[in-house]
Specification:
By secondary structure, the chain is an alpha+beta fold. It is built from 13 helices and ten strands. The longest helix has 19 residues. The chain is elongated and about 90 Å long. The two termini are 53 Å apart.
Length: 302
């Protein structure tokens, strides 16, 4: 297997070495469209010898072949052309637009929401929005203060539009209230509660039902516990807290191995579908050892 990896690496090195020559890459472009073998147009002012030397190198690498009096790209060559040359041409055409994205990204005096909107519009205009957003323009923030973490969580909940996965081992009243408010806007909520039993979400909901502060709050709680849009499960030994919003934003705390019960730092990752899906999968894997509180079992008879 190691030998195959080395071999593949050498092939890639050879391909990029040849295509780094602008005359070879121009010949490669011409062949992709179909180049007559009898052509006397040697591209870019090359001599006959220079032209055929480069053509031969492309053939030896398996990028092109001669078929029916034409040079055409092989299957391998077509894949290389579309994934590298064609993509590169499109990106280069958008060079200054993409440069402006980097400049804007370094601006700390620009509101983040407006910045994200402008960046998205620039990328859409280049045709690279789907290619870049998820993998290369992911926003990452390190959160070292618990109060800052709460603010990040509140902001994500405020902007949630579809669905929230929330695994938590902390109780913070503002976050709880915002979670209920988010549900009230029609957002699906999935909660994995890792709080100690005395302050578990089930006990807090029961307390509100027993002594509601007002009729509006009681009605909301009754709606929550009966709604299929709301999941609540208990897992007392939850290893970390994390939240996924709308399948693209993630915020999670890092494990403190010396003192697992104490918050240390958290990471907020924005616009990353892959990372978000990883944490959604992690959420459901944790639920295998969780249980549904009696409050919900009684409210949702089967």
């Amino acid at each position: 297997m190691k030998r195959d990896i080395v071999k593949n690496s050498l092939i890639a090195q050879d391909v990029f070495s040849v295509l780094a020559d602008r005359y070879s890459s121009n010949i490669f472009r011409a062949v992709y469209s179909g180049l007559k073998a009898s052509s006397t147009n040697y591209i870019g002012g090359l001599s006959k010898k220079q032209f055929y030397t480069r053509l031969k190198n492309l053939v030896l690498l398996g990028l092109i072949e001669k078929r029916d009096s034409f040079y055409r790209t092989t299957t391998f060559g077509s894949l290389i052309y579309n994934s590298q040359i064609k993509t590169m041409d499109g990106v280069v055409d958008s060079y200054w637009k993409l440069k402006s994205v980097d400049v804007l990204g370094r601006r700390e005096d620009f509101p983040s929401e407006q910045k994200d909107t402008i960046v998205a519009e620039i990328l859409k205009s280049t045709g690279n929005y789907k290619t870049i957003t998820g993998k290369h323009l992911t926003g990452i923030e390190i959160v070292k203060n618990f109060d800052n973490l709460v603010n990040k969580v509140l902001k994500l909940l405020e902007n949630a539009k579809k669905e929230v996965y929330f695994a938590t081992r902390y109780h913070q009243p503002d976050v709880s209230n915002k979670t209920f408010e988010t549900f009230g806007r029609g957002v699906g909520i999935h909660i994995l509660d890792g709080n100690p039993e005395q302050i578990s979400l089930e006990n807090r909901l029961n307390a509100i039902i027993r002594t509601p502060p007002n009729r509006q709050t009681l009605d909301l709680i009754n709606q929550i516990v009966r709604s299929p849009q709301f999941d609540l499960m208990r897992l007392p030994n939850l290893p970390i807290s994390f939240m996924v919003v709308d399948g693209i934003h993630v915020i999670y705390e890092t494990a403190n191995y010396s003192n697992p019960e104490q918050f240390t730092t958290a990471l907020a990752i924005y616009n990353d579908e892959v990372e978000a899906q990883r944490f959604i999968d992690y959420f459901w894997s944790l639920t295998k050892n969780a249980h549904i509180p009696k409050l919900l079992q009684l409210a949702r008879p089967t």
